[in-house]
Design brief:
- The protein is mostly beta strands.
- It contains no helices and six strands.
- The protein has a single domain, classed as ATP Synthase, domain 1 (Sandwich), CATH 2.60.15.
- A five-stranded mixed barrel has the order 1-2-4-5-6.
- Belongs to the ATPase epsilon chain family.
C-alpha cells in the first residue's frame, strides 16, 4: 500500500495579503525605514496623500513635509523630507526622498 508524504508546512505570513503595505523610505545615503505598515501619508505636490492596502497604483511628486508611516506593530514613524517621489504598486510603497529635512 502506498503512503503519502505530508507536505512541508508553509510558514504563515506575518499579515494576511491585502491587509498591510510593504514600505520602504529611501534617501540617497540609505534606507530610512523599511517594514510592514497599515498606512502611509506623504506630502504630494497636489496635497496630502494617504495610502492604504489595495490602493490603486500611482506615482507622485513629493514636496517638503512629513512622511508618516503607521507600522503594523509599533508607533507612528515621522520623517521630515525636503521632497522626492512615491511609487505605489500592489501593496508595495516606495518613498524616494531627496534629503531628510
Amino acid at each position: 500500500m502506498a503512503t503519502t508524504q505530508p507536505h512541508p508546512a508553509q510558514p504563515a505570513p506575518s499579515t494576511p495579503p491585502g491587509t498591510a503595505l510593504a514600505v520602504q523610505v529611501v534617501a540617497p545615503d540609505g534606507t530610512l525605514w523599511s517594514g510592514d505598515a497599515r498606512q502611509v501619508t506623504v506630502p504630494s505636490a497636489s496635497g496630502s496623500l494617504g495610502v492604504l492596502p489595495r490602493h490603486e497604483p500611482l506615482a507622485a511628486v513629493l514636496v517638503a513635509g512629513t512622511v508618516r508611516v503607521r507600522p503594523t506593530a509599533t508607533e507612528v514613524v515621522e520623517i521630515a523630507i525636503t521632497g522626492g517621489f512615491v511609487v505605489v504598486d500592489d501593496d508595495d510603497v516606495t518613498v524616494l526622498v531627496d534629503a531628510v529635512a
